[in-house]
Write the C-alpha cells for this entry.
Amino acid sequence: MSTLQDTFYLSRAGRYSNPLNTNDALPLVYGDLTDGAAGIWPLPCIDTVNFVYCFSGFPVLAVADGNSIAIYADGVLVNPANYTFDESDNYESMGAIATVTFASDQGNAVITARGKGKVLSGTTLMENIVDIVEDLLTVQNAFAASLFEATRKARAAQLFTAAGYAAAGVIRDDASLWDAVERMMGSFLGSAYLDGEGLLCLDIDVGSVDRNPAAAILRHAETEWKDAVQRLENVINRCPASYGFDYSTDDFMHYFDGTASQDAASQTIYGLREPIAPLQCHWCRDATSVAALQAIVVAKFANPIYEVGVDDMTLKRLHVDINDIVAWSARRLYDDLGVEMRNQLWRVLAVMPDFGKARIGFRLQQTPYYLTRDILTPDVVWGSYLAGILWEGAGWSAGEAWDEDSGEPLWGDEIAWGSSVTGSERDDTLY
C-alpha cells in the first residue's frame, strides 16, 4: 500500500525504443513557465533516430489554445520552422505525452524549453496549487480522493484563488511525495499535515484566520496555563524572496529584496531582522504574488508574538486539531495596545492528548484576532482588510431583537471576529 512517505519515481526515457539516455526522467509541467529569456527545464531525448524530445510526461495546453512554446538548443533559440510540437502524442503507444520533433539531429545539444503545462479543463491551465497537489497524488499516483480532508482542501483552493495566486513548476526528479507536497504548499505560505483521522489537510496562510467560527473556546475554569514565550529571533521586519525556479540550472531566476513591504517601525525597535535565507517560492513565478507573500510574512512577524502552552483539564475538546483556531483568555498577557488578551484567537500548533490523566496539551500561536461582542444586522459585512478579503459576519447568536420600523428580526448579541486592525471592541466575557 502506498504512503505519502514513498518516493515518486518519474517515467524514464528508457521505455522508448531509441532514447539518448535511458535514465532521463520525463518532466511533468504545470502552469505558465514563459518568464525569462531562456529555457527553463531540460527535455530528454526519447528517440535519437527520429529526433524526438519529451516536452512533458503528460499532455499540455495546445498552441492553438494559447500555449507559447520556445525551444532552445545549448541556450540558443531554435527557429520554430525547425521543429514540430505535439501537445498530446501517444508516442510508441506508451501513453499521451507532449513532444518536440526536430527536423534534424541535435546531437548532444542540451534542449530546454519555455511554455505552458497541463490543462485543468478545456483551455484553462491548472494553476491552483491545490489542484496540482491533487493531480500529483490521485492522477500521477494511485491515491484515492478520500485521502484529503475535503473541507480544508476546498477552503485552501478558495483562498488561493481569492488571493490571485498562480502556481507553475516542473517535477523533473524523483522525490518523496511528502517533500514534493510540502514544497508546493510552502511556496505560498501553505502547509500540509495529517489530522487525527489520518486525512491530508491543506492550508494556505493569507494573513488572516479562517472565516469559520473557532473550533472551540478553551474555558478559563477548565484550563491550566503552562508557559508563554516571545522569541526575538522570530521577528521578521523585512523578508527577501527568491522565486521563478530554473530547472535547467537548479537555481532561482528572480529575487525581491523585500524593501517594498518592510516595517520601518519594527526596524527602529528591533533593528533589521530578516530570515536566515530568503523566502523560497519554488512554485511561484509571479512578481505580484511574491510581493503579497512577503507582505503577509512581515505583517505577521514584525512584532514578537506569543507562543503558549495550555493544558485542557478535560477531554471535551478532542476534536481540535493542528491549525485549528481556538479562543482562549490569556489573562496575564497583553497585546501591542496594552489590552489584556481576553478571548484571543490562537492557532493550534500542536495537540498532545494524555488519556491517562484525562487532559489535552495544546501549543498555541497568537493571531491578531479576538472575539468581539457587537450588534450586527444580517446585511453587515464584517472582517479584516489584512489580506484584502472581506468576510461576512460570523459567530454564535446569543439573542434576538426586532427592527421597530420593518418588524424584521435583527441579530442580537452576536459574537463575531474582530482584531486590532478593524478596531472592533473585544468581548471581555470570561468564558
